[in-house]
Amino acid sequence: MDSQSLPSTTPAEKLSFTATIAHILRTGGLAAFWRGLGPALVLVANPVLQYAVFEQLKNALVARRQKARGGKFSGALLFDLDFFVLGALSKLGEPLYILASVVRGATRTSD
Fold first, then answer.
1. Which residue from 30, 33, 40, 53 lies 20 to 30 Å from 71 (Cα-Cα)?
2. For residue 87, what pLDDT band results from cuts at 50, 70 and 90?
3. Average pLDDT over residues 37-58
């Protein structure tokens, strides 16, 4: 919905919150409130996967360092460079996500 489809108002007379909701309901119906939700949810998938990979790598590194120290905790197990490298490694999966979405799209169009 763009600003041109709103009722004409002068800058001094803006629509109230409830008037805006009523206008959206009149012009687009209830579904207008959820327009764009699908693409937004798709865009959420990549950061979720990246976070999951980061956490798995971090947990594996912490377990490895704890095992190397004999299970004794003495100070920090992870340092700034560790977080940088873990973040960079978790980003490496991004081309795979892109490739998978391209393959899915190609499969859908060929059906």
1. 53
2. very high
3. 85
Which residue do the tokens 């979405």 mark? 101
Q: 46 in helix, strand or coil?
A: helix
Distance CA 73, CA 88 (A): 26
User: What pTM value is reported for the model?
Assistant: 0.55
What Cα–Cα distance (Å) separates residue 49 from each residue in 23, 54, 78, 103? Answer: 38, 9, 22, 18
Q: Look up residue 72 and give its two tokens.
A: 């004794």
Q: How far apart are the first and last CA of the chain?
A: 33
- Residue 82 CB neighbours (<10 A): 16
Tokens 């959206």 locate to 24
